[in-house]
Amino acid sequence: MNNLLLTNIKQLIGITENSNTVKKGKTQGEVQVLDNAYLVIRNGIIQDFGPMSECPSTELTHHDCSQKLVMPMYVDSHTHLVFANSRGDEMKMRLHGKSYQEIADAGGGILNSAKKLHDMSEQQLYDDAHLRLEQVIKSGTGAIEIKSGYGLNIEDEMKMLRVIRVLKQLSPIPIKSTFLGAHAVPEEFKNNKAAYMYLVCNEMLPRIAGENLADFIDIFCETGYFDLDDLKQIIEVGDKYGIKAKVHVNQFNSFGAVQLACTHGALSVDHLEVMKEEDYIALEQSNTLATALPLCSLFLDIPYTPGKDLIKRNIPLAIASDFNPGSAPSSNLNLAFGLACSQMKLTPEEAFNALTYNAAFAMEVQDEVGSIQIGKKANLIITKPANGLEDIPYWFGESLISSVIV
Ligand code: NIG
Ligand code: FE
After folding, report:
1. 248 and 330, same structural domain?
2. With 13 labelled, which of 68, 176, 333, 388 sits at a CA distance of 20 to 30 A?
């Protein structure tokens, strides 16, 4: 809806005057709310808002929001939304006693997704991703980052990134793309990871950057995948092309990746299910954001990122879905909100800021979305009748959304 007047909003939630700095520590838990409010949308932009007593009389279509909350849509700063196949069979294998790692070693996991993606046409890949994106938007996501990483060779990585580019062009919400060539070592390079890294850094990225296909660069830095040396190479080659790093670290092991990413100026470090004291110290001393992925923790039954400790230590926290066919086959940030509160023990306000305002910083769209601010896109959630923000995580696994405006 490009032009609209929302009236009688029970609570207008997530107001900011500017978006100059991330929220951390005490401010992570601060959410500005206006009771009984109006909001004016013109050309899809938040033009004005205030108390109903000051509501302007305009020619705009009115939409009554009595008893309802209005808030910014979620920002999903970490997803793998473009993929070819579901992997429910791997879940079944896990339930029969195999570990994520054993399944990967047996040709499942990321390599399985890469094989399926190789066999799928670009058009089909786009059509499937487009359908998923529509569902994601309906569930309340108003900006999204999407990674490559199921190609693992130059043609297929570029195929994924071109699909993301078309999504960007046709989608009503902001999208950022991330090159994740270093997601897993392909079979052909099993005994020569260095050669694959050479390909990623010296052949893939130059072509990808040349066609402006990537906003960020990523790597899966984990035992059995890529090591600290690879992480350093990825961040440095990204720097060379002016592409910031957002990296997968500390999902299963902590071995210095957070320190390295923080000292080399990564935009965000994502996962962090396993944290050591030195990881906290590195984050405290940097401008890097921490991103928790509670849907992955739920699905794989691994620890939740210690979000409360991160907040206590004044580290800015974002929360994203990690939507992917292997470790988080859900894009539902309403559920992530519930888990952030019930499992990570965040207050509703802390979780809300992690899912909106801070997540916008984690994909550099904070000037466009992530809060109720004049000049930002009116990508908004209108809830069903509700008492307050806490109703969203309270009704976990449900959706309190009545409609979204993008
Ligand atoms: O973020 N950890 C690495 N990458 C994905 C999982 C990818 C997959 O299993 O397909 C993640 O969890
Ligand atoms: Fe991921």
Report:
1. yes
2. 176
